[in-house]
Amino acid sequence: xxxxxxxxxxxxxxxxxxxxxxxxxxxxxxxxxxxxxxxxxxxxxxxxxxxxxxxxxxxxxxxxxxxxxxxxxxxxxxxxxxxxxxxxxxxxxxxxxxxxxxxxxxxxxxxxxxxxxxxxxxxxxxxxxxxxxxxxxxxxxxxxxxxxxxxxxxxxxxxxxxxxxxxxxxxxxxxxxxxxxxxxxxxxxxxxxxxxxxxxxxxxxxxxxxxxxxxxxxxxxxxxxxxxxxxxxxxxxxxxxxxxxxxxxxxxxxxxxxxxxxxxxxxxxxxxxxxxxxxxxxxxxxxxxxxxxxxxxxxxxxxxxxxxxxxxxxxxxxxxxxxxxxxxxxxxxxxxxxxxxxxxxxxxxxxxxxxxxxxxxxxxxxxxxxxxxxxxxxxxxxxxxxxxxxxxxxxxxxxxxxxxxxxxxxxxxxxxxxxxxxxxxxxxxxxxxxxxxxxxxxxxxxxxxxxxxxxxxxxxxxxxxxxxxxxxxxxxxxxxxxxxxxxxxxxxxxxxxxxxxxxxxxxxxxxxxxxxxxxxxxxxxxxxxxxxxxxxxxxxxxxxxxxxxxxxxxxxxxxxxxxxxxxxxxxxxxxxxxxxxxxxxxxxxxxxxxxxxxxxxxxxxxxxxxxxxxxxxxxxxxxxxxxxxxxxxxxxxxxxxxxxxxxxxxxxxxxxxxxxxxxxxxxxxxxxxxxxxxxxxxxxxxxxxxxxxxxxxxxxxxxxxxxxxxxxxxxxxxxxxxxxxxxxxxxxxxxxxxxxxxxxxxxxxxxxxxxxxxxxxxxxxxxxxxxxxxxxxxxxxxxxxxxxxxxxxxxxxxxxxxxxxxxxxxxxxxxxxxxxxxxxxxxxxxxxxxxxxxxxxxxxxxxxxxxxxxxxxxxxxxxxx
Length: 865
Prior knowledge:
Helix content is 50%, strand content 13%. The protein is an alpha/beta fold.
């Protein structure tokens, strides 16, 4: 038997939207278009299409007014206005259906239910089985032996099949009684009144006895008591409610089942839709590659022809961790040659290796840091990279995902497949044949070469070329050297700490079990919650679906009540340090005795660097146990040297807001938190508590902290925190003016910028949702400050690197951690390096405020405290 799937488009879109909208997650495109409803809608339809139905049809409501409004003026009158974030997704959903080759329809005066009802009856006449996809329970009246309702009850992923048997099992009535059922009990969602006081159980009881409202009306006098009175008084409401709830099956419409036949889709059309709306998951499923119209012949060679002109170079780095990865080969493209050479052949090709390390012959690439490092580990040096598509695209669009296919799509080149189409995914990942690699890496090189001019033009138009060429590109080279050099780690030191931490953890476990009076898994939030809130009867336990919440903020509030809390918090901190660093770092030590982290240069929205494998920027320093980890980081040469910017973000704020009082305080080397405390508390002598509160306000202002957030941090009532913030802005009015100005600029332009014109696009700033909009405001206030701090540190890295090379020093820059630069320094160069680093960092950029860098040296990172 053939099958048709009839989809209630409105129901499915609403379900998909509300499944994520409550969290504020609208899954926006890089242009700010919300896509959460369309994404869920498309995912459900793709799932339905896996069953290969013969026919597919989607029905939509035409508008708010239908024939039902003529019967009852306030039909659906209690429904709130549809969110703007959903309204704008309806036309996109229709565009998806067009691209997918699925027919949809809406008819003035009728609802989607009526269209589906009419088609289901016609399908039955033609011997076609019907599956109706909806969340609305009123569709149950259409269920019969030929018609099944697939009801999505949880989000848009789980479907429940409703047949005549399951309808009766769930509701206690037959499907054909469902309109009577709704007529009796009403439907609050659609503002259908029914009979007041008649609920689901009573409605089922009445229909079991009387079969229908009409029959019940004929025997209304037999129904006793208050129920009988209600029925007799409101019988007309019941008839009207039933009429409104009844789905029409005779909508005047042209029905052409062959028109609805599932004939598949045009891959290029659907791919174009996915690219336009950045639906990358669906794009991967389509697994289509638009043909390369130029039909460039990609050659695989064993000896690379002579390369005398600039060319694009794509390096086939196989693994994510490029410090450990094999290199499969090299793709090359310029106007004279396009092709690929395997790693083995490249290693034997002396002329090609000479070209690769010749800085005079310029190369263009993608993620050039990765390319240079992976090649170097594999015995091939590359110099002369002059263009990085990854970094340049990141500057133009910081939210763009770091997948070369998506980046090339962003610039209009759709010729490249996803990498997982070439290599597979997960356990199925493998190296393909050389002819596949030739085509793939040849296309990458060709794309980079041809996109370069367009990208550089965009950078100049956006006044961001200097940021790219004179900041990010040089930093990529510096990071490549830092990563390859690595930082030496004393494995024995970590081994000793492993034993000490183990003993501490075991002791804490004993103490916690003793205080609890029972042994349990402390690492299990569920078991911990039961012990704290059920056995120990601690107050304010918040129970969720998975058990009591034992988050840090919950536990910290309970700390004064019971001594077990401090033990649990310490246990958590110690066990995390143990697994992440004491054990984790040992697993990351290379054969050279060093750790080689990977810096992500094109990840954060603010321009800050992050590091992975391992993350060396998150080693805790507030606890002694956290600081102990740094004992394992030692010099390969003689000394570890560290220089850290002092209060860089507050200095940037003073400069950007042009607050003379703060500028003077910094330039006179005053303690800024003491100065702030003096100003906002109107005192000359400041105690430690005042300074602590002023410090919290200073940093809280940078991050857009609310009065509630400040009150939580410094332990004062909200109204007191609010007064502190108000006084701060009265004392330094320029800061409030600056922040208001940034917010207004962001609302008008959609972005804010750093002092070097790094732009962060903040779509949240104009959101309808209050919480999301407030987040946008905080980002607008903070991003120029935090981003400028990041830019300044990168300028300092460049300046220090240039000075070290000019003096031909053998010391090395090895780490960057937030506002700190760390060096491995030779003993005889120590004095020179201490002066050089400080001078370069403090003169990295000219601001109204003097920059200050504090330095220290020692035999380990720990000794620098």
